[in-house]
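Fold this sequence, please.
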Amino acid sequence: MIARFGEALSEISRRFIPDSFVFALTLTIVTEVAALLYTDVTIIESIEAWYNGFWMLLEFGMQMVLILITGYSIALSSQAKKSIYHLTRFIQTPNQVYPFVILLGMLLSLISWGWMVITAVMARELALRINGINYPYLIACVYFSGTLWVSGLSSTIPLLLNTEGNFLIESEILSATLSTTYTLGSVLNISVLGFSFVIAPILFRLLSPKVGPGLKDLLYTRNAIKELTIEEEAKKMTNAVATISDKLNNHSIFQYLVSLMGGTYIVFHFSTKGFDINLNIMIFIFVVLGLLLHKTPIQYGIAMKRASLNISGILFQFPFYAGIMGIMMYTGLGKELAEWMTSISTIDTYPLLAYLSGAIVNFAIPSAGGEFAVIGPSIINTVNEIGQGLSAQELDEMIARAALSVAYGESLTNCLQPFYLLIILPIMGAGIRIQARDIMGYLILPFMVFFVGWAIMVVCLPL
């Protein structure tokens, strides 16, 4: 019954949810109209805000491209494929695949949300090996598993609050940093982790469709998976008569020396900064691993070319979401929304309203850091007002609860909009006929269950 309900929601999604780019265009218009209705800006000022915001995610977008192609290039190596096979050799049926992918994806996302690419690669390999897997549903499993990043080591808002000289301290909204003991190490966050690791695998097992299109059914051509290996393609690119250029292309010495340099820096980074994982160091690790695994410049170049074949969604859609962010930030619309929601807050309701704020604003600003820059100051000011007379520790706990509430709401509503799906589809959708609407319907019921469950926890559980 539950599986049939999930299938019905998926069918509704396929009928009514448009392509992810249409989603971005629609949100742009909706945000623009809202800015004109609820702020004092003129039309030209709101359009200027949109234009100025258009370029705000260029660095982030490039990071997304690099984390995708460097991570995917590692998975294309023969050593990585062998490792994936040995790790998953006990998985034999679709009903084993779905919960395994959910659990693995959640574990990896706790280290960094960018490690969704590793989950995606492993899931695709399983789909090639095991018959009977509903491939759109498998993609939904991978995508949902990434929501738990908000409770892990790369959770943007808790790390921001614990960063010296952050914008909240500089603007005197906070007087000092807030330790991650209050956020990531809290009873609330650990409870969210426990709830997720128990409920998600069970829920996705119950929702798993009986039948559905497999990966091989969706391929544009049946030969799409029978391509040359990277080593075979590298040999075909070598001249019949040995040349200096071929020797350079196929020699490992330069690649290993550069890898040694990179490895030295990675050791230095973690020895001097502790377990500090950010996007840049993660991409750098992927680059160094890729160089080592592919051994020669020509093989690494082929791997990166193959990994880059399907990144157009990131390249042209990220600026549109950045433009939406610009409207929210530069017209004051984001501040207006946050102030309205916090104006009705009390000491009992502020966590729920912060949670809803994070969920709603995420549709327009699908970046936790960018969203908190817009609504964080208003929410923390409200907490400071309603918490007057409390001790410093009690006030810190209230701020931590509000910040976590925003983060949880922001993370979960990614299930309803395809922004970060753009990171998954270039890997899992390579060479096949699939769109966001084929996937998003499977996420509606899990979203509803988790949205209610997490809401109860942010309101009722001790910090």
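Residues 2-460 form one domain. The radius of gyration is 23 Å.
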